[in-house]
Amino acid sequence: MTFVRIIEALLLLSVLVMIHELGHYTAGRLLGFTILEYAIGMGPKVVGFKKNGIEYNLRALPLGGMCRFYGEDDGVSDERCFNAQKAWKRFIVILAGPVMNFVLAFVLAMILLLGWGVADETKVVVQSVTENGPAAVAGLEVGDTFVTVDGKPVESVDGLTAAVRAADADHMEVVVLRDGAEKTLIFTGLYNAEKGVNFMDTTIANGRKKVGVGFAVRESVAYCWEMAGLVFKSLGMLFTREASIQDMAGPVGIVLLLGQAAESGWYTVLNLCTLLSVNLGVFNLFPIPALDGGRLLFILIEWLRGKPVPPEKEGLVHLIGLGLLLVLVVVVTFNDVLRLIRG
């Protein structure tokens, strides 16, 4: 993977985190919270400006971002500080981060469906053609749609594969649709001695068909719901030992996945970003100290008790949770690096 791909992957990951922080920021502005800073990236400040008392900064490391509220973690206790706001307001502001990840996932799923449609299993389209292979020699091109093989209609990937296997290795007549017009190609030398079958030396896939907005909305909701369910299922597999911590991907693993997706095109990138955005939203809702879910849990406890948990005790719990999360990040990152070294 090239350095450029790594930077692209880091930027994509940062966008997912930035959208999360944008949820906190937007809810905070609407509910009258005092916001000190909204930053893109982490680390030292590179450039920024200040407007209406809020700093908007671009920071050096392309790793997410942050929305910093007045009095959130620095121990101040006047009426403007974060913890002095009503519990329901704080609940909405904290919840808005994960919600924005779900909104982003829904929007990305809509873009995928409206832009690329859904698989049409009745159409078979050429994805790649190996140089000097039988398909290349016959004149097959990327984007061609198979119509017939030796006069028989092609109606599925399996059907095309079976037709090629059964064809005369030295004379197979194929009709494809190219730029709206049918074109006849003659294949020769199909038999591959190493594989023991006729082989075109090309990759194929189902075509795509357009869908309406209503269908896209329903399927996007269903897809995001399904992906959220998979997150919980994966977590359950850790407890039942069907999976282990070695199967988890940390920041390095995610960056590598995004970089590989970038090499495959925008469809793959957006699909992976949809999945990651759902994962980020669900993970942040887990009632784990230092995560949004942990903070929401303390607000729920506050409602049940009729008074907040003492700030020093809540802060200690979040600090311990943060320490454990950092240990987890180190472990999964170490596993990511080992997988990278081993290839």
Oligomer: single chain
Number of helices: 9
Average pLDDT works out at: 88
Q: What is the makeup of the main sheet?
A: 4 strands, antiparallel
Number of domains: 2
| Helix/strand/pairing category | alpha+beta
Helix content: 40-55%
End-to-end gap: 12 Å
| Residue share in β-strands | 15-25%
DSSP strand tally: 10
Which series of helices and strands comes N to C?
Answer: HEEHEHEEHEEEEEHHHHH
Give me the Rg, rounded: 26 Å
Strand order of the largest sheet: 5-4-6-7
Shape: elongated
Low-pLDDT regions: none
Topology readout:
Blueprint: H1 3-30, E1 35-51, E2 54-69, H2 87-116, E3 118-129, H3 134-138, E4 145-149, E5 152-153, H4 157-166, E6 172-178, E7 181-187, E8 191-192, E9 197-198, E10 202-209, H5 213-239, H6 251-264, H7 266-285, H8 292-305, H9 311-342
Antiparallel strand pairs: 1-2, 3-10, 4-5, 4-6, 6-7, 8-9
Helix pairs in contact: 1-2, 1-6, 1-7, 2-5, 2-7, 2-8, 5-7, 6-7
